[in-house]
Amino acid sequence: MALEALKSRRREDYKFTLEYRTRWSDNDMYHHLNNSIYYFLFDSVVNTYLINHCGLHPPSSPQIGLVVHSHCDYFAPIEFPAVVDLALRVKKLGKSSVEYEIGVFVKGEEAVKAVGGFVHVFVERESRKPGVDGMGAPLREGLREIVGAGVDAVERKPKL
């Protein structure tokens, strides 16, 4: 996707938002959020959504999500102290996989500071292989709720 399109993201492009208050320890030696913190935040917003809206219980759910790809494009720095909005949507929904997009916004500012995401493949906890029917129904239904408008979300139907 073109960087200009990502730079033009707005909060309303996303379906779920989680607030995060930065910590002093989030800064790097250049006095802005360290790049590793962005990935921590991506993981937090996605898993908060999965737990609260998709019925996932990481310690005991029969399926787990494995991250198979991640990325982030940075547009402007964020530094402590700041309150950020982590905005989440689904870009693609497959049989056992989902691609998320996360926009990072500073509270009170319109311009997106970073856009990133990752791909989860949901597998059976024990075998680490995708289930016959892909991800479970509660997970799929919850993820459908945050499929972004105007994105190329596709859902593959299971073969009968």
TrEMBL record:
PANTHER family linked: 4-HYDROXYBENZOYL-COA THIOESTERASE FAMILY MEMBER (PTHR31793), NOVEL THIOESTERASE SUPERFAMILY DOMAIN AND SAPOSIN A-TYPE DOMAIN CONTAINING PROTEIN (0610012H03RIK) (PTHR31793:SF27)
CDD domains associated with the record: 4HBT
InterPro entries: 4-hydroxybenzoyl-CoA_TE (IPR050563), HotDog_dom_sf (IPR029069), Thioestr_dom (IPR006683)
Keywords recorded for this protein, A-Z: Hydrolase, Isomerase
UniProt lineage: Eukaryota, Fungi, Dikarya, Ascomycota, Pezizomycotina
Family, similarity comment: Belongs to the 4-hydroxybenzoyl-CoA thioesterase family.
Protein name: Thioesterase/thiol ester dehydrase-isomerase
Domain Thioesterase: 31-110
Methyltransferase listed as a keyword: no
Species of origin: Melanomma pulvis-pyrius CBS 109.77
An example Gene Ontology molecular-function term: fatty acyl-CoA hydrolase activity
Pfam family, one: 4HBT
Gene3D superfamilies referenced in this protein's UniProt entry, alphabetically: Hotdog Thioesterase (3.10.129.10)
